[in-house]
Design brief:
The protein is mainly alpha-helical and about 130 residues long. Helices cover about 40% and strands about 5% of the residues. The protein contains 5 helices and 2 strands, in the order ααβααβα. Strands 1-2 form a two-stranded parallel sheet. Helix 3 packs across helix 4.
Length: about 130
């Protein structure tokens, strides 16, 4: 289930901060992660992930809206691929990206669409299955 403790190897300030912030998010006490993230990807992917990271708690955008925001309005499918390749889907809130009709179109984190639906419910974001 979501929110269960995960076993982690090693320790450091960033790991402790990540554990605490993720626990606070699942407890409903944190809306924005402030962890340092250095995701490896293409410049296009990084531009998509940067735009996604601007979506606030309880808000959502469509793939097309993100494509427009990064200056490439015809790139909805490429945006979808970039969203799917995000290595930190919870921290860079990919669950907040939906199809143009509000439909869940996929999710790579946890148990896929089931996890995305749970995260959307957690943030009280309306969506279509």
């Amino acid at each position: 289930e979501l929110g269960k403790k995960a076993h982690a190897e090693g320790s450091s300030k960033v790991l402790t901060d990540a554990k605490n912030q993720i626990a606070a998010y699942f407890a409903g006490k944190l809306e924005r992660f402030t962890l340092p993230i250095e995701a490896v990807g293409t410049e296009f992917q990084k531009s998509v992930w940067k735009e996604i990271s601007k979506i606030g708690f309880g808000r959502q955008l469509s793939y097309g809206e993100i494509a427009a925001k990064i200056g490439n309005p015809a790139a909805s499918r490429a945006v979808g691929a970039a969203v799917g390749s995000n290595p930190t889907p919870l921290l860079v809130g990919c669950h907040r990206v939906l199809g143009s009709t509000g439909k869940i179109t996929g999710f790579t984190g946890g148990k896929g669409i089931k996890t995305k639906a749970w995260l959307l419910d957690h943030e009280q974001i309306e969506f279509r299955s």
